[in-house]
Amino acid sequence: MNPITLLCAGAAPDADPAGALRLPPGSALQRLLAAGRVSHDRQLSGDPLPELPEDDWLRAEFGVPAGSAIQAFGGVRHGLTPPWWGLRPCHLHLGIDHALLTDPAQLALEPAESAELARSAAAAFEAAGLRLHAPGPEAWYALGAPWDLQCWPWTLASGRHVIAYQPAGPAARAWRRLLTEVQMGWHEHPVNQAREQTGRRPVNALWLDGFVAGPPAAPVRGLLISHCPALAGLASAAGWQVCAHDQPLPDWGRDAGPVLVDLDAWRAPRRLGDAHAWRQAWAEADAWLDGPRWHALRAAATGPLRVVLTGERRVLTLAEGTGRRWRWRWWRRFDALAALAAPAA
User: Fold this and answer.
1) Separation CA 279–CA 265 (nearest Å)
2) Contact 27/307 with Cβ under 8 angstroms?
3) Which ranges of 107-245 does DSSP label H, i.e. alpha helix?
4) Is 200 contained in some domain?
5) Residue 277 in 3-state DSSP?
6) Which of 70, 90, 111, 265 is deepest in the core (most CB within 10 A)?
7) What is the DSSP string of 23-83?
């Protein structure tokens, strides 16, 4: 069978005491699941969480071993061979008693700037027994043996006080020493001086996302439709086909394996706390679900539909009703938006 899963990371409004994240009436999701049900509704615990709820779900779905970070799997798309560490050039906003991680996407780091900063940092990594590989401004990688560290991804720490998200473990001091050396080299680097002269934030830190030791143990192979580099790398490592949203769909016949569609428009608004953009993401999702690509996937599907929605700590799975008892209950209409708006079970 080739069932379809829609991953709506950041779409669940489970942490909204002010009611800013109001769900739109009559969405395509509501129409899709008119004869559906709540399959799973789980609230994650931990302070802080080890990873985002969508990463927790992906870890179980793809069989990612403990110790390997979902956000570091983008290295697969650059032809890297494990082991490696995932890194992200970033800006820490330093206050009197706090340091906040600015969302790295807001840096707008140019490829040439990234390459210059990487050249400046390479020697420090070599001295630590690692080789720095920087294929682009969005993600860097440090190739070499693992340190004994627990890391938190930048996607979890973005916009937050970083003290709770610093790498921890026996090798934490070695990482801080390496990071300090890199930061000293960047303090008056020409790239940062030029950025500050044009009103842009300097790149003053590296964020360590975590480690990749090897491929996931996905039980089956399938098709991923996504723009997310980390998710694309994860699926590629599991032997899946990967297709971006704006690329032609591959020839995906019946019984060819599961399809995972990553509807990612909620991710950035969730990180940035942008309620208006979060509501716009619903409109973008509706437009995609009303389009020809989605209808082609649904026509070829031989399995049921799942919709996985995540929030700050919640993983909610809605599923099509299947079997005889669902076909006979033609008068029943499942309220998917009410299930979303309700507190997590």
Assistant:
1) 10
2) no
3) 111-127, 154-157, 172-186, 190-197, 229-237
4) yes
5) helix
6) 70
7) PPTT-HHHHHTTTEEEEEEEE---SS-SS-HHHHHHHHHHTPPTTB-GGGGGGGGGT--S-
Tokens of 236: 């590629």
Last residue of one domain, picked from the residues 177, 212, 247: 212
In order of 73, 208, 269, 279, the CA distances from 161 in angstroms are: 25, 15, 18, 26
List 94's β-bridge partners, or say none. Answer: 99
Same domain, 161 and 260: no
**Is residue 70 one of the residues assigned to a domain?**
no
Q: Which of 153, 186, 212 is the last residue of a domain?
A: 212
Same domain, 185 and 242: no
Per-residue pLDDT of the chain (345 residues; tens, 9 = 90+): 588 999 999 988 765 545 555 556 667 777 777 767 888 899 999 889 999 999 999 999 999 988 899 999 999 999 999 899 999 999 998 877 778 999 998 999 999 999 999 999 999 999 999 999 999 998 999 998 778 899 999 999 998 899 999 999 999 999 999 999 999 999 999 999 999 999 999 999 999 999 999 899 888 889 999 999 999 999 999 999 999 988 888 877 666 789 999 999 999 998 998 888 988 898 898 889 888 888 888 888 778 889 999 998 999 898 876 554 444 444 445 666 666 666 665
Q: Which domain holds residue 247?
A: 4-64+220-341
Name 261's Cβ contacts closer than 8 Å, sequence gap at least 6: 4, 5, 6, 7, 225, 226, 294, 297
Residue 294 is assigned to a structural domain of this protein: yes
Enter the pTM of the model.
0.90
Examine the domain organization and report whether 120 and 172 are in the same domain.
yes
- 283 in a structural domain: yes
Residue with tokens 């080890």: 50
Measured in Å, how far apart are the chain's first and last C-alpha atoms? 30
Q: Report which residue type is found at 143.
A: L
Hey, is 115 helix, strand or coil? helix
157 shares a domain with 252: no
